[in-house]
Design a protein that fits this description.
The protein contains 5 helices and 10 strands; from the N terminus they run βαββαβαβαββββαβ. The protein has about 220 residues and is α/β, with parallel strands linked by helices.
């Protein structure tokens, strides 16, 4: 499969690129400064991309069969709307070019807390995360209105860990377990999910399976 990875130089994005190559896919690593990705491979291409540039995304998407986006992973310098802007532009480009499969990252705050509320709507939800959660909710609503076969992967805290860390996944809610997920294992899960129709048009809570080894926080 020819995969476009958006946000490819971030800590999670770079792991997604490596995992996709290991799983035998051809990859285009797209980021503002793709040369920052310290990796060379015969099946790897690199492309500069500003996700706020709709024309650039429209030009890049058609060469691929699927897209993985790691936009929205919290960084101190990242505007809270980066996921929403990127998703809107990706949806437009993918629908125009007929590329249907998208696996994207979002906040666990947009998973269900119960039948009527999202996790970000619970009393005491951290104020620092509210703006980002609102943007992620709009991104989810954008995807629901689209014709894409999308999956929004919604992990809690990302931590350092093993790529073979067992994970638990559940549609629309967080599974039971520790509120963290191994980043290398999550990268592996996201790439594998591209070929799994069970997760089409769903939010998915993913975290380390109960009983796994404790992991150091990033």
């Amino acid at each position: 499969m020819r995969i476009l990875v958006v946000g490819a130089t971030g800590r999670l994005g770079s792991l997604v690129v490596r995992e996709a190559l290991e799983q035998g896919h051809a990859v285009t690593a797209a980021a503002r400064s793709p040369e920052a990705l310290d990796l060379e491979h015969p099946a790897l291409g690199k492309a500069p991309l500003d996700v706020r540039d709709a024309a650039a995304i429209r030009a890049l998407v058609p060469e691929h069969e699927a897209v993985v986006s790691t936009l929205g992973y919290r960084r101190h310098h990242e505007a809270p709307d980066v996921l929403l802007v990127g998703i809107r532009h990706l949806v437009t480009a993918m629908e125009a070019s007929g590329v249907r499969r998208l696996v994207a990252l979002a906040s666990a705050g947009i998973l269900q807390l119960d039948d009527t509320r999202l996790r970000c709507e619970r009393p005491g939800y951290p104020e620092a995360f509210r703006a980002g959660a609102a943007m992620h909710r709009e991104a989810w609503e954008t995807l629901e209105r689209s014709t894409l076969d999308w999956t929004l992967v919604c992990p809690p805290e990302l931590v350092a860990g093993r790529p073979d860390q067992p994970l638990s996944a559940r549609a629309d809610r967080l599974p039971e377990g520790p509120l963290h997920v191994s980043m290398p294992a999550l990268a592996r899960w996201m790439v594998a999910a591209l070929a799994n129709p069970a997760w089409h048009r769903r939010r998915v809570g993913v975290l380390d399976a109960q009983g796994g080894d404790p992991l150091d926080r990033l």
